[in-house]
Q: What sequence folds into this?
């Protein structure tokens, strides 16, 4: 220490004076009484600051339970009151400290369902004192959050990631596929993957393209209302997902979520055909271009014909994704040069075209140049419902001649996930293109008219180079 | 005794967290079903009232109303706080000299009885430390809150409760007073004064159920008991006095229990189902037939203190029964009222001997007959309540029932049921906005009274009635558009209240809508289409029988008497009474006026009728060569 630096001297000096700075440095939960220069007194417990609060505002929890923000004037004084800090008297009264709930013995695999958590609120607990979110790991905690979840058999919980759904990456998709295979090899009845809903449909498609010869269902599930609300849909969703994983004769990747605003009906969607179609509603997830694979109404589980039953295994993963693909939304006024910039680095591009798979004529030259270079270009419709068709209008034919692969009725997002997966399988454009147009796991719906599937004679067969 | 009030007033500003209107409706656009789960709150603790509710495993069916959207269905986050509603609360805070919070935080108050689709009620503390003077006494106002009203309960089925979404989300302004109220009458007067102040903002809803009072009552040595949702001001004194009486009784009973050496055992309840194998008591028989059990809890020293229906409306036996009912069973039987209800003296003796109470006459017991689980929960609730009896008065929430009586509904909720509404950022209250509001405060009720009596010239009781009925805004607007003051006053203080007393709901809730509906009626009088004497009849036909205004006027037989027709009728009356005219001269006017009014009442204004008749009389007298003096 070679004497106080000027800046340092100023800061502690000021903070010793300024009641706002002094308050900010007290431990959260401290019981304090604030006295405004006008003489008004307010007592309560210090809460963490809100990032959206105005300047010089501290948050207090009042004895009535209300939180308020108090602006600290330079003349405000305060005293620290005796008594336990906020929350200290309470933490152990909470259920779900691991007591009371049956704890499964080591590896009683028969009848077990694996629950892989990734950090969405559906399998997390919120700590209001710090604002932090923690994954649920203990079966006891799980039973407290979801009473009855272990009633049908043991649950084996593993945390694969602790991220928000919007932070999901292909690297996690890869890890999830490997974890699913590991759990199925251990002999679990099925696997539930709990995550946030924003990118849940992408993850569902990503797992569907990676996983083969599934011996049980892989069920993705989330909550549109966070689990800290008494009305959360997460309770029914996760109980339903566990039931499907345990009981359904399904050997594919599905999503189980509310089918209606009511808590009584859950839909089982095929992972490659589902899309989040509403930002907030419980029934946001819908199967595009068709009906869900099945329904879970109360205790009754119904599957449509056409689902893939449990396989004999062993389950395996063709895991991993390239980052050499792009997804370009074709909108009026998009310049050809901007779009082509996406193609310079890419080995594959999904175009979300208008209507039956169209775009403006000035894009044709760069698309021709790209396909000639060996870039795989696929077309899906931004209409989301219905399929692309190159034969109805001349622009479609021009695109076909430019080398664009028309991808039926799959969503742009599913097409993009499939492209990233296919690019990781091969560097040969013809192989990538074949993977893109082939029906690998039921991602294409029944044909309704002229479509690429009819010109893809090998549809349905797997064709890994 | 000490009492405090909480007043909840619905605002007419539109809903609090979405853009739906505040008006209720009976149309249903489908239903949906939900369940609610108790969650762990901010402190890591579950609220005990919340846990109790969610433990009952009910499903809730919601009827979707046209004035609801995804927010009420809990399918979309709340929109921002309604600025109009906030403005009303800030205005009221200023009127009550309260300190407005610097930065408001919306909270979630856990409510899992299904009345909120989210499982919580959104509420925010807006101001603290206000005050109001009533009858020269100062009462503190510790808090002023803004919250959302709950869904309206419309039905009950086994395992299912039905609600409508139309009321959910209507802003409720909550004013709490300190515990300084010392009598039932004072409670009513404070409620009335706060009600008048609320109406002074001119942004409140009207009609039954739009203002609800919670009464917090405790007596020396008693405990805080909250009586929820009293809807009528005049019932307040009775509720307060009955609660004082109930707490007094409980304290007396505590002394008697202590002198009897009463105690509550900790041993498990005794299964006495065997005793009732062949019983003729219907409730017990039914429970056993369904595979249930009869559980008994001995209560040493309680005998004679549980009471019977002859003891009076309040008694310990009923308190025990209410706690049992809150767990879901139909009720209890206790030894003070047995043998009765089909339970025989032999069965009573058998139960006593099973419990080892033979000969111990000071010992009582309670029976619950129900399925095993519920019976056990109910008997534990009885045990807990009996323990409280040894301590005195338990803190609790009670619901009003008939005749100023109340019934236990749930424990007082604690602060653990409050946690922040994370979907809405904190709301800073701009000091400039407050200054602005302060400069434009609405007239206080006493100022309104002074203006109406001194400037407008209304009689004091008429002015008071306008203030009390919350019709000042409507009055001012109708007078401002040129209608005569006495007519508007009569409409709003006599004719309209009489009409609305007989209607299920007011003709319209908002001041704007009332003015819109009443304006044409007054215009019809102003333009001579019917006379003010026919107002009551026209209002009834128009608003109660729902005729349009023209046909209401016609049906009242009041329409279309032209000036010429009136003159003709006046002449006829005069001609028919020429003899009288000759005899009495101008003083025959009075009887003639009576005759004429009998046939034109309500069709032309009385003054005009008098004028026309006077002229006709003078003309005829002139023709007769009479004195021509004015009557």
A:
């Amino acid at each position: 220490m070679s004497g106080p630096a000027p800046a340092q001297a100023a800061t502690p000096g000021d903070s010793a004076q300024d009641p706002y700075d002094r308050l900010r440095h007290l431990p959260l939960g401290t019981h304090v009484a604030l006295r405004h220069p006008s003489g008004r007194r307010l007592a309560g417990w210090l809460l963490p600051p809100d990032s959206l609060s105005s300047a010089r505002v501290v948050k207090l929890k009042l004895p009535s339970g209300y939180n308020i923000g108090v602006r600290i004037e330079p003349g405000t004084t305060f005293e620290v009151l005796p008594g336990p800090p906020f929350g200290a008297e309470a933490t152990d009264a909470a259920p779900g400290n691991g007591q009371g709930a049956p704890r499964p013995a080591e590896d009683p695999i028969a009848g077990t369902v694996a629950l892989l958590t990734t950090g969405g609120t559906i399998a997390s607990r919120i700590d209001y004192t710090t604002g932090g979110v923690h994954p649920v790991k203990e079966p006891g905690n799980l039973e407290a959050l979801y009473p009855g979840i272990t009633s049908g058999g043991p649950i084996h919980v593993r945390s694969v990631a602790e991220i928000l759904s919007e932070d999901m990456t292909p690297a996690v998709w890869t890890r999830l596929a490997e974890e699913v295979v590991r759990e199925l090899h251990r002999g679990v009845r099925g696997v539930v993957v709990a995550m946030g809903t924003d990118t849940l449909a992408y993850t569902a498609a990503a797992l569907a393209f990676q996983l083969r010869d599934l011996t049980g269902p892989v069920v993705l599930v989330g909550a549109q209302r966070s689990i800290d609300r008494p009305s959360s849909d997460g309770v029914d969703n996760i109980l339903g997902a566990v039931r499907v994983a345990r009981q359904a004769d399904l050997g594919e990747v599905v999503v189980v979520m509310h089918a209606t605003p009511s808590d009584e009906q859950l839909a089982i969607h095929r992972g490659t055909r589902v899309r989040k179609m509403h930002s907030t509603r419980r029934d946001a997830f819908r199967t595009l271009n068709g009906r869900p694979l099945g329904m879970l109404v109360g205790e009754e589980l119904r599957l449509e014909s056409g689902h893939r039953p449990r396989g004999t295994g062993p389950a395996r993963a063709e895991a991993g994704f390239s980052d050499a693909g792009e997804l370009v939304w074709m909108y009026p006024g998009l310049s050809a040069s901007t779009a082509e910039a996406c193609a310079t680095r890419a080995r594959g591009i999904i175009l979300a075209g208008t209507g039956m798979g169209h775009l403006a004529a000035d894009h044709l030259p760069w698309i021709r140049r790209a396909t000639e270079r060996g870039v795989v270009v696929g077309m899906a419709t931004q209409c989301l419902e219905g399929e692309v068709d190159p034969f109805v209008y001349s622009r479609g034919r021009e695109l076909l001649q430019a080398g664009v692969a028309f991808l039926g009725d799959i969503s742009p997002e599913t097409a993009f996930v499939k492209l990233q997966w296919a690019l990781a399988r091969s560097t040969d454009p013809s192989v990538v293109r074949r993977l893109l147009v082939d029906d690998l796991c039921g991602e294409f719906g029944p044909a309704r008219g002229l479509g690429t599937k009819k010109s893809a004679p090998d549809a349905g067969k797997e064709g890994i180079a | 005794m000490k009492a405090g009030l909480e007043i909840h007033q619905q605002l007419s500003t539109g809903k609090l967290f979405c853009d739906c209107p505040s008006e209720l409706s009976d149309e249903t656009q489908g239903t949906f079903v939900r369940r609610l789960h108790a969650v762990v709150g901010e402190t890591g603790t579950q609220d005990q009232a919340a846990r109790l509710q969610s433990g009952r495993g009910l499903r809730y069916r919601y009827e979707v109303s046209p004035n609801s959207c995804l927010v009420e269905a809990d399918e979309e986050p709340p929109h921002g706080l309604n600025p109009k509603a906030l403005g009303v609360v800030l205005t009221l805070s200023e009127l009550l000299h309260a300190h407005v919070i610097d930065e408001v935080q919306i909270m979630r108050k856990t409510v899992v009885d299904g009345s909120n689709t989210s499982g919580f009620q959104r509420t925010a503390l807006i101001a603290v430390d206000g005050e109001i003077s009533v009858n020269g006494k100062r009462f503190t106002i510790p808090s002023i809150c803004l919250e959302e009203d709950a869904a309206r309960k419309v039905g009950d089925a086994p395992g299912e409760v039905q609600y409508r979404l139309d009321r959910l989300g209507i802003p409720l302004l909550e004013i709490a007073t300190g515990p300084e109220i010392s009598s039932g009458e004072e409670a009513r007067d404070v409620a009335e004064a706060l009600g008048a102040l609320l109406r002074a903002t001119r942004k409140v809803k009207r009609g039954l159920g739009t203002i609800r009072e919670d009464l917090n009552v405790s007596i020396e040595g008693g405990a805080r008991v909250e009586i929820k949702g009293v809807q009528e001001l005049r019932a307040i004194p009775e509720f307060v006095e009955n609660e004082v009486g109930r707490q007094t009784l409980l304290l007396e009973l505590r002394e008697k229990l202590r002198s009897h050496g009463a105690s509550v055992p900790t041993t498990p309840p005794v299964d006495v189902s065997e005793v009732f194998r062949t019983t003729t008591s219907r409730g017990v028989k039914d429970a056993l037939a369904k595979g249930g059990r009869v559980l008994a809890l001995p209560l040493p020293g309680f005998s004679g203190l549980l009471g019977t229906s002859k003891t009076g409306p309040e008694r310990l036996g009923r308190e025990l029964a209410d706690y049992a009912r809150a767990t879901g069973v139909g009720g209890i039987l206790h030894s003070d009222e047995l043998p009765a209800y089909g339970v025989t003296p032999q069965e009573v003796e058998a139960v006593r001997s099973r419990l080892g109470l033979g000969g111990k006459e000071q010992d009582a017991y309670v029976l619950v007959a129900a399925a095993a689980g519920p019976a056990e929960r109910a008997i534990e609730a009885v045990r807990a309540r009996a323990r409280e009896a040894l301590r005195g008065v338990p803190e609790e929430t009670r619901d009003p029932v008939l005749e100023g009586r109340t019934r236990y509904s749930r424990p007082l909720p604690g602060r653990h049921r409050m946690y922040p509404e994370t979907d809405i950022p904190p709301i800073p209250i701009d000091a400039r906005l407050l200054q602005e509001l302060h400069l434009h405060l609405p007239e206080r009720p006493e100022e309104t009274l002074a203006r109406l009596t001194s400037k407008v010239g209304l009689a004091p009781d008429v002015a008071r009635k306008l203030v009390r009925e919350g019709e000042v805004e409507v009055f001012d607007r109708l007078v401002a558009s040129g209608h005569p003051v006495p007519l508007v006053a009569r409409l709003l203080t006599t004719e309209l209240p009489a009409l609305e007393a007989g209607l299920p709901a007011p003709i319209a809730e908002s001041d704007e809508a009332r003015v819109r509906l009443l304006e044409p009626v007054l215009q019809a009088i102003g333009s001579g289409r019917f006379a003010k004497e026919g107002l009551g009849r026209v209002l009834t036909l128009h608003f109660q029988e729902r005729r349009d205004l023209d046909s209401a006027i016609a049906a009242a037989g009041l329409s279309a008497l032209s000036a010429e027709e009136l003159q003709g009728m006046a002449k006829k009356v005069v001609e028919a009474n020429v003899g009288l005219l000759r005899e009495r001269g101008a003083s025959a006017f009075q009887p003639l006026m009576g005759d004429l009014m009998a046939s034109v009442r309500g069709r032309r204004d009385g003054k005009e009728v008098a004028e026309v008749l006077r002229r006709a009389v003078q003309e005829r007298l002139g023709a007769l060569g009479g004195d021509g003096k004015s009557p």
Notes: Residues 170-186 of chain A form the longest helix (17 residues). Chain A has a mean pLDDT of 85. Chain A touches chain B through 49 residues (CB under 8 Å).
